[in-house]
C-alpha cells in the first residue's frame, strides 16, 4: 500500500456487507438522466405490456392504482458510484402486470416516455424482484426521479430502473437498451461490478 | 473481472476558483477520449481502503496527458483531497474514458449550444477546446451561468473571442461591473436568442447541478426544442 494517493484516509469503512465494490454511500438522492424530464400527466398515463406476438395489455393510472399495492424498502446502487440505503417505495409488483400474459419471452425491454429504453432478462422482473413505483418516502414520485411512475429493480444498477416507464416489451432475443448500447454493461449486477462493456 | 485501472501521475494543479482546481495527470497507456467524457478516479488509503468518484475531462487528450476539473465539495470524502491534498508528483488511479452519450465529435458539423451551470462548464470546456483544435466550422455558442465573477472557471479560455464561439455569461448573485443584465437565475428569455440561432438540426448540451439542468431543459422544451436534441448531464 501507499503507492497511490499518499495521505488519503477516506471514511466509508464498516459498510462492507451493504456497500457493493467501488460504491460510496450517500444521504442525498442524485438525479441522472440523458435528456429533459418528460411531462407525463397521470390523466393520460398508461402502462402497457406487449408480448413477442404483438399482443398487448394496458392499464390506466386508476387501473394501476387499483391493483394490490406493496410498500418495499431497498438499497439502490447507481453506476456513477453512489449507493443509497433503505429507500422506501410504494407500487405494484411487476408480477401483477404479467399474471395473465402468455409469453415465451426470456427478455424484456422497458420503454419510457422520452424514448429511453433498458433491457433485462424477464426473470429479473419476476418473483417480487421488481415493481412499478409511484410513491417515494410517502410522497408522489417527483418528475426528475421518474414520476409519475418508474420501474424499480433494486438488485441491478439503477439505470435498469427506468424512469417514466410506459411499456414492457417482451422479447425472444436480448435487445440492448439506451445505455447498454453506448458502453454500459448489458446486465449490471452491482455486486459483480458490471459497470461497462469491459467488465 | 473489472476493467483496468491505470496509474495517473499528477503533473500540474491550477486554481480555477477559490475552491475549484484543474488537475493535469499523465496516464501511461491512455487510449484517448472524446470531448464530454468522464473518468472514475480511485484513491487508496494506507490500510487499503479505496474510494472512487467520477470527474469530467476538461480537455481533449494530449497523448498521455489528461485534465480533470475538480470542485471541492465541503465535507466531501474525495474532492477536497484531490483539490488540495494530493501532492503534485503523486499517483492516483483512473478508469475510463466513460460515457458515449454526452459527447461532441469533431466530425459533427451541426450547430451546437452549450449551457453550463457552475462546475458543469467542465465537459463543455472540453468540447470548446476540441472544436477549436479541429478548426471545426460548426457554430458554437456557450451560455455560462455562474454566481459571481469569482466563480468563473477557465477565464482565459472562455472570455476570449474565439472564432465560431460566442460566450454569454449569466451571473446569478452578483454580475461583473458593466454587465447590463441584472443578476438572476437563467430564464427562457436568456435562452430565446440562442435557441433561434440554433438551426433545427443543432444539438444542445446542458450540464450543471440538477435544479439548473431541470430548469434549462424545461425552458428549451418550452422554446420549441425537440427533446431528442437536448443532451444533459447532472451533478448531484
From TrEMBL, chain A:
Residues 1-21 are annotated as: Disordered. Residues 35-179 form the Oxidoreductase molybdopterin-binding domain. Coiled coil: none annotated. InterPro entries: OxRdtase_Mopterin-bd_dom, OxRdtase_Mopterin-bd_sf. PANTHER family: OXIDOREDUCTASE MOLYBDOPTERIN-BINDING DOMAIN-CONTAINING PROTEIN, PROTEIN-METHIONINE-SULFOXIDE REDUCTASE. This is DMSO/TMAO reductase YedYZ, molybdopterin-dependent catalytic subunit.
TrEMBL record, chain B:
Pfam families: FAD_binding_6 (PF00970), NAD_binding_1 (PF00175). The keyword Glycoprotein does not apply. The keyword Transmembrane helix does not apply. Its cofactor is FAD. Residues 3-104 form the FAD-binding FR-type domain. One of its GO terms (molecular function) is oxidoreductase activity. Keywords: 2Fe-2S, Iron, Iron-sulfur, Metal-binding. InterPro entries: Cbr1-like_FAD-bd_dom (IPR008333), FAD-bd_FR_type (IPR017927), FNR_nucleotide-bd (IPR039261), MRET (IPR050415), OxRdtase_FAD/NAD-bd (IPR001433), Riboflavin_synthase-like_b-brl (IPR017938). This is Ferredoxin-NADP reductase. It comes from Streptomyces wuyuanensis.
Amino acid at each position: 500500500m501507499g503507492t497511490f494517493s499518499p495521505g488519503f484516509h477516506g471514511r466509508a469503512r464498516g459498510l462492507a456487507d451493504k456497500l457493493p465494490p467501488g460504491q460510496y454511500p450517500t444521504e442525498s438522492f442524485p438525479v441522472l438522466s440523458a435528456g429533459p424530464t418528460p411531462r407525463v400527466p397521470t390523466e393520460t398515463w398508461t402502462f402497457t405490456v406487449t408480448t413477442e406476438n404483438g399482443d398487448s395489455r394496458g392499464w390506466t393510472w386508476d387501473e394501476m392504482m387499483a391493483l394490490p399495492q406493496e410498500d418495499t424498502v431497498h438499497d439502490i446502487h447507481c453506476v456513477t458510484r453512489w449507493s443509497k440505503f433503505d429507500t422506501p417505495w410504494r407500487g405494484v409488483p411487476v408480477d401483477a402486470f404479467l399474471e395473465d400474459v402468455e409469453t415465451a419471452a426470456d427478455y424484456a425491454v422497458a420503454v419510457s416516455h422520452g424514448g429511453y429504453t433498458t433491457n433485462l432478462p424477464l426473470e429479473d422482473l419476476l418473483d417480487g424482484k421488481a415493481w412499478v413505483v409511484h410513491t417515494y418516502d410517502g410522497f408522489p414520485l417527483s418528475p426528475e426521479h421518474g414520476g409519475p411512475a418508474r420501474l424499480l429493480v433494486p438488485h441491478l444498477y439503477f439505470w435498469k430502473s427506468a424512469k417514466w416507464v410506459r411499456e414492457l416489451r417482451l422479447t425472444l432475443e436480448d435487445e440492448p437498451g439506451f445505455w447498454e448500447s453506448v458502453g454500459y454493461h448489458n446486465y449490471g449486477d452491482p455486486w459483480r461490478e458490471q459497470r461497462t462493456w469491459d467488465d | 473481472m473489472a476493467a483496468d485501472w491505470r496509474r495517473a501521475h499528477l503533473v500540474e494543479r491550477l486554481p480555477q476558483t477559490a475552491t475549484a482546481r484543474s488537475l493535469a495527470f499523465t496516464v501511461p497507456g491512455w487510449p484517448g477520449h472524446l470531448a464530454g467524457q468522464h473518468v472514475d478516479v480511485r484513491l487508496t488509503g494506507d490500510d487499503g481502503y479505496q474510494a472512487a468518484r467520477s470527474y469530467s475531462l476538461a480537455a481533449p487528450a494530449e497523448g498521455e496527458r489528461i485534465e480533470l476539473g475538480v470542485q471541492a465539495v465541503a465535507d466531501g470524502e474525495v474532492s477536497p483531497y484531490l483539490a488540495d491534498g494530493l501532492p503534485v508528483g503523486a499517483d492516483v488511479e483512473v478508469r475510463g474514458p466513460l460515457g458515449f452519450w454526452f459527447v461532441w465529435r469533431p466530425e459533427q458539423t451541426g450547430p451546437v449550444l452549450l449551457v453550463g451551470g457552475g462546475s458543469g462548464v467542465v465537459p463543455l470546456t472540453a468540447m470548446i477546446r476540441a472544436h477549436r483544435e479541429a478548426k471545426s466550422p460548426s457554430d458554437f455558442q456557450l451560455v455560462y451561468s455562474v454566481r459571481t465573477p469569482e466563480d468563473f472557471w477557465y477565464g482565459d479560455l472562455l472570455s476570449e473571442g474565439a472564432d465560431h464561439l460566442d460566450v454569454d455569461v449569466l451571473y446569478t448573485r452578483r454580475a461583473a461591473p458593466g454587465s447590463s443584465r441584472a443578476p438572476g437565475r437563467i430564464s427562457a428569455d436568456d435562452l430565446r436568442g440562442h435557441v433561434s440561432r440554433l438551426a433545427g438540426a443543432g444539438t444542445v448540451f446542458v450540464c450543471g447541478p440538477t435544479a439548473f439542468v431541470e430548469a434549462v431543459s424545461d425552458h428549451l422544451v418550452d422554446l420549441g426544442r425537440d427533446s431528442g436534441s437536448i443532451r444533459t448531464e447532472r451533478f448531484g
